[in-house]
């Protein structure tokens, strides 16, 4: 039986090869990092990065916005350590924690981003997180999500059903995050963002299953 690893276990074990893997083995990610950087509003001064990992998206964002103030949240300390090694001179506040539980504040950020992290969670949990992201953004704020998304409802249902089967067989506690892909369709992602309060949510990029949606508060 496939053994599910906790998020922290999974990414700690893979931190050394993570950057190369994402840039060379995951279709669309190399291009997606640069596209995400181009979508951050040019006048943005504060940025929230959820699941920032080693900061591959920040590598690109800092090229165009070297002085932007970033709060990055990730559940894996080894990833944050790698990010800090790469960007010791940047205005970075790094939080090792679960972004479902970390206080994101209100009316705080010009932009929020997430890259290939949201496809591990249930839709109701994500919708509530999107509400919190919405509240954390300033009035003209933008949320940019790049994630693994599927084309059909059948694909989505298959991934979610298999995840539930594996967790049930392993007797896994629902309160702990385990690494398993549960991608949603693009349409369902957009529905969740609008339910959370975003006025608009639009797909702007797609290569393979790597997809970017931009959601605007106003």
Q: Gist?
A:
This protein has 218 residues and is α/β, with parallel strands linked by helices.
Topology:
Elements: H1 7-13, H2 15-24, H3 29-39, E1 46-50, H4 56-64, E2 69-74, H5 77-86, E3 92-96, E4 109-115, H6 123-136, E5 137-148, H7 153-170, H8 186-195, E6 200-207, E7 210-216
Parallel strand pairs: 1-2, 1-4, 2-3, 4-5
Antiparallel strand pairs: 5-7, 6-7
Helix pairs in contact: 3-4
Account of the protein in words:
41% of the residues lie in helices and 23% in strands. The protein has 218 residues and is α/β, with parallel strands linked by helices. It has one domain: Rossmann fold (3-Layer(aba) Sandwich). A 7-stranded mixed β-sheet has the order 3-2-1-4-5-7-6, sandwiched between helices. The N and C termini lie far apart (47 Å).
């Amino acid at each position: 039986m496939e053994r599910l690893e906790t998020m922290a276990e999974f990414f700690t074990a893979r931190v050394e090869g993570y950057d190369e893997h994402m840039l060379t083995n995951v279709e669309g990610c190399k291009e997606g990092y640069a596209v995400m950087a181009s979508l951050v509003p040019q006048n943005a001064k504060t940025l929230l990065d959820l699941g920032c990992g080693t900061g591959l998206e920040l590598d690109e964002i800092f090229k165009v916005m070297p002085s932007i103030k970033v709060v990055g949240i990730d559940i894996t300390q080894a990833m944050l350590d790698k990010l800090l090694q790469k960007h010791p001179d940047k205005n970075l506040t790094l939080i090792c924690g679960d972004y479902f539980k970390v206080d994101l504040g209100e009316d705080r950020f010009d932009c929020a981003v997430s890259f290939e992290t949201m496809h591990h969670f249930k839709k109701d949990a994500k919708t509530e997180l999107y509400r919190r992201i919405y509240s954390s953004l300033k009035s003209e704020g933008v949320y940019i999500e790049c994630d693994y998304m599927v084309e059909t409802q059948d694909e989505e249902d298959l991934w979610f059903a298999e995840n539930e089967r594996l967790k049930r067989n392993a007797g896994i506690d629902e309160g702990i995050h385990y690494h398993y892909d549960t991608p949603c369709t693009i349409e369902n992602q957009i529905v969740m963002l609008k339910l959370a309060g975003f006025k608009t949510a639009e797909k702007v990029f797609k290569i393979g299953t790597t997809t970017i949606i931009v959601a605007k508060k106003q």
